[in-house]
Amino acid sequence: MSDAPAIEITRLVKTFGNAVALDGVDLAVPEGSVFGFLGPNGAGKTTALRILTGLARPTAGAARILGQDVSSAGNAVRSRIGYLPDVPGFYPWMTAMELVEFAGRLFAIAPATLRERAESLLEMAGLSDVRSKVGGFSRGMKQRLGIAQALINAPSVLLLDEPTSALDPIGRREVLEMIASLRGRTTVFFSTHILADVERVCDRVAILDRGRVVANAPIAELKQRAAVDRLVIDVDGDPATLISELELRPWLRSVDRKGESMTLAVSDLKSAQRELPAAIAAAGLGLKRLEAAEVSLEDMFVELVHRAEQ
Amino acid sequence: MSGFSTFLGKEFTEIRKTWRIWVIPGMLVFFAITSPIIAQVTPALLGSMAKSQPGMVVKIPSPTWRDAYAQYLKSLSQMVLIAVVIAGAGAVSGERSSGTAILTLTKPLSRAGFVMAKIVSQAGLLVAATIVSSAVCLGVTVGLFGAAPLEPLLVAVSIWTIDALLLTIVMTLFSAGFASRGASAGAGLGFWFLTLLISIWPPANRYSFVGLISASGRALGSQPVDALWPVATALIAGAACALAAIRVFETREL
Q1: Containing domain of residue B12, as a range?
Q2: Class of domain A7-218
Q3: Residue B38: how many CB atoms within 10 A of its CB?
Q4: ipTM of the complex
Q5: Lateral strand order in the sheet of A19-29
Q6: What residues form DSSP beta bridges with B232?
Q7: A228-309 homologous superfamily
Q8: Is the pLDDT of residue B128 over 70?
Q9: All residues at 6 or more sequence positions from B247 whose CB lies less than 8 Å from its CB, including other chains
Q10: What is the mean pLDDT of residues A237-241?
Q11: What residues pair up with A27 in beta bridges, in sequence order?
Q12: Which of the residues A51, A68, A78 would you substitute to probe the B interface, choosing the one with the greatest number of B C-beta atoms within 10 Å?
């Protein structure tokens, strides 16, 4: 495995008329990693994936997969990637086996290998016993078939656009386990707005908002970074006076109050830890708890997107 | 044109397994059977109508194989060409709107291969169906009229086929250029009517592909027909439209 990133996006811009879908995106996805591409609806995730697959062209900047520019490499890149779009389209008159084998023949896979691989992938997708035409499949079945066809060429890079959005909890768990099992062998780049999925399988995450990357780091680091910004305080009385007083402090960004408990988002942790006990005492309250908050990925996501909007 | 043969195989399987096998081939065979019958019964029908009108005398010559072939060509030049326009309208745009173009074009299949497979499969279907239906027309005509020469039918239908193939390629171009099936069908019908209109002007009829339809009709006459210019310009226009379809589709974002 080389040190060069499997996917490298440099100052990528995509505009549709006056609308800016991607606004100077920079991203590097390490080879063999499972990379989560998070963002609210309309953030530009699908646009980025369409550029990576060669379905759309960038307005400016560049995108490279395995060292090759996606705009000019053509089949050299396409032969090494697997792609599942957010709403996969299939030929309704084909069966699942016919579709996966058709996909494999486009990669010129030898017939014996293709049959074996198709059977194994349909088994994994839970579709090996389904003989009906794809036109009669549920959305979940189509999503699982989409994943199977995306893996038919044993891709070096797997690009998945919202792969779990149409799946039931069991199907979702199976797909996530399958994605996790590819770690180290295949670079998986998947866009989603389901934070729990990212938390479960990703090594690293980038958060996209309004066409800009607002965070890009390993999940543990992002959580740590967000956690030191938050303090949980429990006091033994009504904290209204204390909150009014704290709102005058320059290091306080926001207060989330639940009864006698408060979660403070702070910009200067040391100043906050030094000044808080005195402020609580001055408000006539007793301090029951003061500690750094456990931050979920959801908190971090909301915080980062909120910060970007400001 | 990587992936071309695989995608072409898919196209032929799709023709075999879906409605596409019935539309144009079905129409062609239907007209092949009914045209000689219509040619034979038309004088008798007109005669019976004349008898119901006192004082009216209608003299109609006995129908021949020429009338059967002319009726068949008339149906090809009108109904079948409209069917070619409607069926070809969704060739590329249908795959774009259903998302299947994304499925195939993110694999090692070039856009040129995609477009060419569409053209070749539609052309293959049209040519095969025309051969079968023309053989049926010949058989029914011989059965009804006793004898019918092959050559006039062969020449006339060959010239018509070139016109239909050109229209197929033009429809692929429109289908690659327009996002919706309706828009490309509209453009195709507009193109067809325009060629009919231009063909009224004698120089255009003689020296360009718009003269193919009248040339195919003349092929049924007793004089040899000169269709060199219409055929040559149709081949050039077809090649140009195929290249344009590829270029247009390559510039489209999916």
Answers
A1: 4-251
A2: alpha beta
A3: 18
A4: 0.89
A5: A19-29, A7-16, A60-65, A68-69
A6: none
A7: Protein-tyrosine phosphatase receptor IA-2 ectodomain (3.30.70.2470)
A8: yes
A9: none
A10: 88
A11: A9
A12: A78
pLDDT at site A310 = 63
Where residue A159 falls (left for φ over 0; alpha for ψ -120 to 50; beta otherwise) is beta
Which tens digit of pLDDT belongs to each residue from B210-227? 999 999 999 998 888 889
Q: Would you list the domain boundaries of chain A? A: 7-218, 228-309
Which residues of A are less than 8 Å from B254 in CB distance? 50, 55-56
**Cβ-count burial A199-208 (b if 16+ within 10 Å, e if not):** bbbbbbbbbb
For an interface test with B, the pick among A90, A102, A145, A158 (most B C-beta atoms closer than 10 Å) comes out as A102
Total domain count, chain B = 1
Tokens 């909120």 locate to A306
Q: Whole-model pTM?
A: 0.85
In a mutational test of the A interface, the residue from B107, B110, B252 whose CB has the highest number of chain A CBs within 10 Å is B107
Are A163 and A132 a contacting pair, CB within 8 Å?
Answer: no
Q: Shortest CB distance from B100 goes to which of A54, A75, A91?
A: A91
Separation between Cα atoms, residue A278 and residue B156, nearest integer Å:
102
Please tell me which residue of chain A has the smallest CA distance to B17.
A93
- Within B147-254, residue ranges assigned H as helices are 151-177, 181-198, 202-207, 212-218, 228-251
Q: Is A258 exposed, middle or buried (0-12, 13-18, 19+ CB in 10 A)?
A: exposed
CA distance B254 to chain A (A): 5
Q: Which of A125, A161, A159, A123 is nearest to A29 (CA)?
A: A159
**Cβ neighbours of A105 in B, within 8 Å:** 6, 9
- Examine the pLDDT at B115 and tell me if it is beyond 70: yes
For chain A positions 170-229, those within 8 Å of chain B (CB to CB) are none
* Amino acid type, B36: P
* Tokens of residue A113, six digits: 């290998």
Distances (CA, A) of B54 to A59, A117, B43, B50: 79, 81, 18, 8
